[in-house]
Amino acid sequence: MAASATPAGKPRQPSISQLRGFAAVAEQLHFRDAAAAIGMSQPALSGAVAALEEALGVQLLERTTRKVLLSPAGERLAIRARRVLEAVGELLEEAEAARAPFTGVLRLGVIPTVAPYLLPTVLRLVHDRYPRLDFQVHEEQTASLLDGLAHGRLDLLLLAVPLGAPGVVEMPLFDEDFVLVTPRDHWLGGRDDIPREALKQLDLLLLDEGHCLRDQALDICREAGRTEGAPMTTSAAGLSTLVQLVAGGLGVTLLPRTALRVETARNDHLATGDFADPAPARRIALARRAGAARTEEFEAFAEALREALRPLPVRVAGRSA
To answer: HTH lysR-type domain location, by residue (predicted)?
Structure first.
């Protein structure tokens, strides 16, 4: 058979239909049986195999009046054809899975001052409502999370806002108040009307640089009129250590209310106090890339998470917040 080639001298691209027809004939070694197996008419099947031979420039079959045999080239290419068809099948399966919401991988980035307190609720929601979702969690500081979102390493972020990051859409979940955590015998312990101005001269313990909670606490202090020279210690990488320092009498700190039960419930050397209204607060949100392919899915996830968070001591945001 003469080779049929492109202007560059290379075989033409075969079609999936041609490969499917050839693979069926190679398996059945009979045109009628092969046509029945793939639901194609016998003339159409014969034409597809002939077109494949012409496109590749290779004789694949030896035809006789009674039987069909694979040529040496046909035996080799039949193996390749089956692999191509298997790969196409996998591609179609993956596309079907991608069309179905809440399937496949969802990579969530979470800041350290949220992860221990909200993840139990998040994971329970995913387990109960989205069992087919391959849910992966990455705990990192805000700057690293935003970088991961921008470069596609992460799909969603759970963190404090506002971010002011271009190309990032915030989906607010809730607002929560800050609580003052003090040593047990501190004069502000147990009060429910602490004025913000009390923060002006307190020995305040903060998280290390890079934590957004540190920046939020500093903003609250500045709003309260705290001067740059007021006593302030930075000596903790996490909230648990920060609380232990407070219990040891080294100062006071600010905790978001969702962290209060986990961090203070078992320590009788601590006291807490609530601020007078309006209390200082932070907003927690999910964040996604603007124009993300899974925007509708992420919006639905945010709404489901708002409902799941209602039992917590927070003020849940509305859908249009």
So the answer is: 14-71
| Tens-digit pLDDT profile for residues 197-255 | 888 888 888 887 767 778 788 788 777 777 665 556 556 778 888 899 999 998 889 89
Residue 50 sits at the vertex; the CA angle it makes with 44 and 51, to the nearest 5 degrees, is 85
Does this model's pTM top 0.90? no
Long-range contacts of 70-74 (CB under 8 A, 24+ apart): 70/26, 70/29, 74/22, 74/26
User: 49 with 18: CB under 8 angstroms?
Assistant: yes
Q: What is the largest CA-CA distance in the chain?
A: 104
Cα-flanking dihedrals φ and ψ of residue 313, to 5°? -75, 65
pLDDT of residue 231: 57
* Number of Cβ within a 10 Å radius of residue 284: 23
What are 75's two structure tokens?
Answer: 């035996």
What lies within 8 Å, CB to CB, of 25 at 6+ separation is 31, 34, 45, 49, 61, 68
Q: Which residues contact 179 (CB under 8 A, 6 or more apart)?
A: 254, 255, 256, 257, 260, 272, 273, 274, 275
d(CA 168, CA 231): 36
Beta strand extents in the chain (DSSP E only): 61-63, 68-70, 104-110, 133-139, 156-161, 168-183, 204-207, 232-236, 253-256, 270-274, 281-289, 315-316
Q: Which two tokens stand for residue 173?
A: 């979940």
What's the CA gap between 231 and 134, in Å, rounded? 47
Alpha helices in 141-237 (DSSP H): 142-150, 212-223
The HSE-up count of residue 202 (CA atoms within 13 Å, CB side) is 30
Sign, Cα dihedral of 234, 238, 241, 246:
positive
Question: Two tokens at 46?
Answer: 């014969």
Side chain identity at residue 178, one-letter code: F
Amino acid, single-letter form, for residue 185: D
Residue ranges of E strands in 38-142: 61-63, 68-70, 104-110, 133-139
Rounded-to-integer distance, Cα 253 and Cα 232, Å: 10
Distance CA 100, CA 189 (A): 52
